[in-house]
Design brief:
Helices cover about 50% and strands about 15% of the residues. By secondary structure, the protein is α+β, with helices and mostly antiparallel strands. The strands form 2 sheets. An 8-stranded mixed sheet has the order 4-10-9-8-5-6-7-11, with helices on both faces. The relative contact order is 0.09. The model is unreliable at about 1-5, about 105-110 and about 335-345 (pLDDT under 50).
């Protein structure tokens, strides 16, 4: 039946077919449905949205919508994390190869039209960006890490954005969720109108700017005083693919962030809990989410209070118990009130 279902209903839990939607909705409303109701929609069993009633195998009971939502959110988070790791490895490789090139021929000027060009100094970076802007005719894709965008950052690229808007070039920008709280960004988007579309994620990769899917700019050091200009078709296409996958997973700036489904825990705190479970320090978590260390620690304190944890060690246990580490479906935070952590069996 599983193979038949995959052939007849090629979709996931995030986009149920019409028949599956009807049967699953009926099961949620009534608490269960006869097994015969699910025969035309094997996808519901394949996707674990329905499962046999242990008291009567002729009936099927639904997986709770909250558990399904949590499963989908965890899948999105895992896909974003995997994409970020791949891009981080690629950027590190670019820097290594660029360093070898500088050692080999430090006096030679970069060849015109070379596949990878090192731009050393803000003046050279700005000049190359201006040149790419003038040549751009169709589309600009950008990833802007960090938190709330500073006015200086927005002003620095405003002349290029206005020039692109004047030529009808479309722009798509990715930010962290924290950027939603910056009035400067909201003013910038209002000024640009329909020319710019913005979406946000918990985390994004390092800064990336793509012009017409032919040239890309990425940082070449931590303080961004050096950059790589990439024109190799395979490298640029790879970065475009990364951007498009992140874009598909991101949330439009005009849409609200999804509820976590866990009482007392915000979307940002859910992200912090997942990173804590991975063993990251406060400063690393703050940098990845685009918030200050102080703000990060305030959220961690609220997590501890909500989950009833008296120490960081106990907080880690609580995070695992409610499933915020991604290893099991989350349980309501209140279910742990007053409970002492118990060691796993075995």
């Amino acid at each position: 039946m599983a193979g038949h279902g995959a052939e007849e209903h090629p979709h996931g839990a995030d986009r149920l077919c019409e028949a599956g939607d009807r049967v699953y909705s009926r099961a949620v409303r009534r608490g269960r449905v006869p097994r015969s109701d699910a025969e035309p929609v094997p996808c519901l069993l394949d996707l674990a949205l329905l499962h046999p009633d242990p008291d009567d195998m002729d009936w099927l009971v639904p997986t709770s919508p909250q558990e399904v939502m949590t499963r989908l959110l965890r899948g999105v988070y895992d896909e974003v994390s995997a994409s970020q790791r791949r891009v981080g490895s690629a950027v590190a490789a670019f820097e290594w190869y660029a360093g070898l090139g500088r050692q080999r021929d430090t006096l030679a000027a970069p060849a015109e039209g070379s596949a990878i060009r090192v731009l050393d100094g803000l003046a050279r970076i700005q000049a190359a960006m201006d040149e790419a802007t003038e040549a751009c005719t169709t589309e600009v894709l950008t990833v802007q890490p960090g938190g709330i965008r500073r006015e200086a950052e927005l002003t620095e690229g405003l002349h290029r954005a206005l020039a692109l808007r004047g030529r009808g070039v479309r722009m798509r920008d990715l930010y962290t969720h924290v950027a939603r709280h910056g009035q400067g960004l909201l003013n910038y988007l209002e000024l640009m109108g329909d020319t710019v579309e913005a979406r946000t994620l918990d985390e994004v990769i390092d800064r990336l700017i793509l012009f017409d899917r032919t040239v890309a700019f990425i940082p070449a050091n931590t303080d961004r005083t050096m950059a790589l200009e990439l024109r190799h078709p395979a490298l640029v296409e790879y970065l475009v693919t990364v951007f498009e996958r992140l874009w598909r997973l991101a949330i439009p700036l005009t849409a609200p962030l999804p509820d976590t489904g866990i009482e007392g825990i915000s979307h940002r705190e859910q992200s912090i809990a997942a990173l804590l479970a991975e063993g990251h320090q406060d400063a690393v978590i703050a940098e990845r989410l685009g918030i200050s260390v102080r703000t990060c620690r305030a959220h961690i304190a609220r997590l501890s209070e909500t989950l009833g944890a008296a120490s960081r060690t106990q907080l880690g246990v609580r995070i695992a118990q409610v499933g915020l580490d991604g290893h099991r479906p989350p349980r309501p935070a209140g279910a742990l009130a007053g409970a002492d952590p118990k060691p796993p069996a075995g």
